[in-house]
Design goal:
Elements lengths: L5 H11 L3 H24 L7 H18 L13 E3 L12 E6 L2 E7 L11 E2 L6 E2 L3 H16 L5 H8 L7 H15 L2 H8 L9 E5 L2 E5 L2 E2 L15 H23 L2 E3 L7 E4 L2 E4 L5 E3 H8 L20 E2 L4 E2 L7 H11 L15 H11 L17 H21 L3
Antiparallel strand pairs: 1-2, 2-3, 3-7, 4-5, 6-7, 8-10, 9-12, 10-11, 13-14
Helix pairs in contact: 8-10, 8-12, 10-11, 11-12
Length: about 400
């Protein structure tokens, strides 16, 4: 190894030294790169929605669609629609959800992006590197097994066609593309829930798809003035009556969810919407069949306290001796609605906490949000609300609404 003399080191350093002008150019370039990177990360953020980011995602999809093709009757004019962030914004950001207008009619758009649990439909042989797909009958059986395993539900024959959305059956390569798009949709939890419960009219209905992007009914969000919560609990009679009416509609809706064994694990007031006098909930990421959520909560994951076994608003408990989660969901939909929507907190009071709230209603809401007495606790869920308490709350709300309607009648 040759060692350099001190003079040689100085000559090398002099040759590598940048002039002040070069240093200025390099520093400016670095600043520009950092700024561009920050802007790009912000626009395409997974935590905030920007219309620019929505346009970027749609343009990226449309470019791929024009190159590779996609199935679905929405593809014909999908890329010409107007797209923007969801209105109102979601409490928990959904990076693959946005809003569109088709001939002036609003639609909710969701892209079924594969996650870490994605299962491939085809296999590739090692010799020819060719993709091999199942037949149509084999694919139907794959979907049936998948839905049964994940949701514990059977798919009737007459529902398979609308669920699968297969097309181009006479053209092999296009049919395989259609099958691949269909499989992406079915593995999307929101698409599966909307499709499986479509005839129950519980959730927005799917209007069509283009590849792994699907459109659903857009709901008119319930109208609440959230700003009032920051300053005062004052509310006029008409608004108070509206709050009572919506609360009754939500309890009716919760009753339907319970009948179909569907559990809400996160609830956001702005996601309730009304179309044709029908209340629905449109953020299905955290709504599950009881079978699905119970399997998720009792998965045996490591824990040291009960909070480690919870999922969002769904509560469970930890087996402290074995240090793993093995319990099913312990609270129920009514308890979650009372705590998060009706009662709220001191800083963010719920829709039923105003200067007009009667003492009996306030007492029922506190019992409902935190049921501790034996008479208030559900027989099947130790942290849930009993049928008797739910009935008392429902009767109290309808009684208040009837009195308000009588007092304001002309």
């Amino acid at each position: 190894m040759l060692l350099m003399t001190k003079k040689e080191w100085k000559n090398l350093a002099r040759r590598l030294r940048f002039s002040p002008r070069k240093r200025h150019y390099i520093a400016s370039l670095l600043v520009i790169v950092v700024v561009v990177s920050l802007v790009y990360c912000t626009v395409t953020s997974s935590y905030y929605c920007f219309d620019t980011g929505v346009e970027w995602k749609v343009n990226k999809f449309c470019k791929r669609y024009r190159t590779e093709g996609a199935s679905g009757y929405l593809c014909q004019d999908f890329c010409s629609w107007d797209f923007h962030c969801p209105e109102p914004s979601l409490e928990i950001h959904h990076p693959h959800r946005f809003q569109a207008k088709k001939l002036g009619d609003p639609l909710t758009i969701i892209q079924a992006v594969p996650n870490e649990n994605y299962e491939k439909l085809f296999w590739v042989d090692s010799l020819y590197q060719k993709e091999h797909y199942p037949s149509e009958t084999e694919y139907e059986n794959i979907v049936k097994r998948y839905i049964t395993n994940k949701y514990n539900m059977e798919i009737p024959f007459d529902k398979m066609r609308s669920l699968l959305r297969l097309s181009h059956k006479q053209h092999v390569s296009m049919f395989h593309n259609s099958m691949r798009d269909s499989w992406n949709l079915i593995q999307n939890h929101e698409y599966a829930m909307m499709s499986m419960f479509n005839e129950k009219d519980l959730f927005p209905f799917v209007t069509g798809n283009c590849g792994e992007v699907f459109a659903s009914e857009h709901l008119e969000s319930v109208d609440f003035d959230e700003d009032r919560y920051y300053f005062t609990k004052h509310i006029d009679t008409d608004r108070w009556r509206y709050h009572i009416k919506v609360a009754v509609l939500i309890l009716d809706y919760i009753e339907e969810l319970d009948q179909h064994e569907i559990q809400m694990c996160h609830v956001d007031l702005t996601r309730f919407g009304i179309n044709n006098n029908r209340l629905k909930y449109d953020d299905l990421r955290f709504l599950f069949t009881e079978y699905t959520i119970n399997r998720k909560l009792s998965s045996g994951s490591h824990c040291t306290r009960d909070e480690h076994c919870n999922f969002m608003h769904c509560r469970s408990e930890c087996n402290v001796e074995k240090k793993w989660c093995e319990s099913t969901v312990l609270n129920n939909n009514v308890q979650i609605i009372c705590e998060k929507i009706f009662l709220g907190t001191e800083r963010y009071p719920g829709i039923l906490i105003t200067q007009r709230t009667p003492d009996r209603l306030a007492m029922l809401l506190k019992r409902c949000a935190n049921p501790t007495q034996d008479r208030d606790v559900s027989r099947t869920r130790p942290l849930g609300v009993s049928e008797d308490l739910k009935k008392q709350l429902y009767n109290e709300l309808t009684s208040i609404y009837e009195r308000l309607a009588t007092n304001t009648a002309p």
